[in-house]
Amino acid sequence: MRNTIQARNISVTIDRDQKTIVEDFSFTVPDGAKVALIGEEGNGKSTLLKWLYDPALVEGYATVTGSASVSGTKGYLSQELLEADRTLSVYEYLGTHTREDALTPKALSRAMKEVDLPFDLAYSDQRMGTLSGGERVKLALAALLINDCDVLLLDEPSNDLDLDTLLWLERFLSSVKKTVLFISHDEVLLSRTAEAIIHLEMVRRKKIPRATAANIPYDEYMRRRDAAFSHQAQVAQFEQKAFREKKERYLAIYNAVDHAQATLTRQDPSTGRLLKKKMHTVQSIGRRLEKEQEALPEAPEAEWAILPKWLGGEVKNGKTVLAYGPETLALADRVLAENVALRITGPERVCIVGRNGCGKTTLLRRLVPEIERRGYNVFYMPQTYADLLPLDRLPEEFLAPDGDKASVTEAKIFLGSMKYTTDEMDHPICALSGGQQAKLLLLKAILDRADVLVLDEPTRNLSPLSAPAVRTLLREFRGAILTVTHDRKLISEAATRVLKLDRNGLMPFDASAL
Questions:
Q1: Which of 34, 194, 227, 266 is most buried as measured by Cβ atoms within 10 A of its Cβ?
Q2: Helix (H) or strand (E) holding 449
Q3: What is the distance between the alpha carbons of residues 472 and 307, in angstroms, rounded to a whole number?
């Protein structure tokens, strides 16, 4: 099988701080393969994808060395809708992003059918900025299909999609007869579609880049990775224990010789010479031990190695947290849902799902003051982090706004527990990745000793390696949780009750088919 993408000795350095995030990495993508590019934000995934499509897209931001060849026509789907595209009609958007000779009625009809959109939408005057996230992703993919691209480079196509569109995207990726290199944080999507993995990491306190290419499906990659970590941890523990015992024996000998030298009288020069010679030998052993210590295997380092613990937050079993409705949910003059009613008791973890635009975020914002009126300490995590985070402040200033020494020390300890480096702690919040900002908000909930968590898409910016730790954290919370999410892993592992919001209100939802 021929390789569609061949990359050799790729290194990526961020121009701003001259930090190398990918170093001397080579990989291939076979023809027709579906390959996932995974890793934490800031590890170079989007930069690498943009560079493969058009090196000009990373100019002024990153310097990329090495070489890459891509066979066939490339198509690129960006993570966000460009500002210039927001005011375009659907047809203007398609005309802007397709070749003039390719946008024929036949090609347009075929592409709209393939992305499961009505044909008449292509000729509507509806502006791109007013469409749902799913509609925008589908139209971007339609443009790539109209251009008959052989290689699809997709940056977070699953971001902000509702559950129905996520299921559609899975079917599309699995069936499309193209080579696909894509970035996604959705673990279920990765599990069902990724045939091979490219994993970009920053280890040793985010100072050393590490890249892995594995020609195996996502689940198998994670299984082997976990097994390798477990074995490496056992080897490191055994060898470090053996070294400590050797070091203790050495120190006992050193101290004995040193004591003998200190208590030796001048009347015994012969013994003094022997002890001096023995000390040289002991010191030589010490130098060898120092080199041996440097070569000891280290415990394996993952993206999220330490999990913080809740400091408080508990709602007694059966105690009422919320009793709301039935009410009409409206935004401005538009009715979103009728007869919305919700009762939550401790320590439930209630998850709300529904199509994009149905009013889930609006409902959460309305329910927060209702819960607070019952005397609970509520922490609300918005979908847009800037609504809560002071982007110009340091992380510790957000976590310990009073500046009290004990509070600041506690904040730094918890930041360290979530693998924040000293550099990240010393930079304003705006310099943090979306994933690090999400973790910062969760830390705030912990340090505020919240009783109730109201979370709007809490895992949307977390990598597949960080998200499992957050799910564990939420499962261990002894208060009540109300969350909106499209994260199927979070729904299946952390929710005790799932409801779907539609025009008729909140209805029980069976998530087992997801």
A1: 194
A2: none
A3: 9
86 half-sphere exposure, CB direction, 13 A CA radius: 8
* pTM, entire model: 0.82
| Token pair in block for residue 7 | 């990359």
Q: 480-496, pLDDT tens digit by residue?
A: 999 999 999 999 999 99
Amino acid letter, 90: V
Give dist(CA 9, CA 13) in Å, integer.
13
Would you say 414 and 488 are in contact if contact means Cβ atoms under 8 Å apart?
A: no
**What are the E-state strand segments in 15-141?**
19-30, 34-38, 62-70, 74-77
> What are the CA-CA distances from residue 83 to residues 59, 97, 357, 414, 451 (Å)?
19, 14, 20, 37, 40
For strands 208-214 and 320-331, give the pairing.
Answer: unpaired
- Chain-centroid distance of CA 207 in Å reads 18
Q: State pLDDT tens for residues 243-297.
A: 888 888 888 888 888 888 888 777 677 877 887 888 888 888 888 888 877 766 6
CA distances from 324 to 305, 343, 425 (A): 40, 6, 40
Residues forming a β-bridge with 211: 200
Query: Following DSSP, what letter does each residue of 331-364 receive, concatenated?
Result: ETTEEEEEEEEEEEETT-EEEEE--TTSSHHHHH
Beta partners for 344? 322
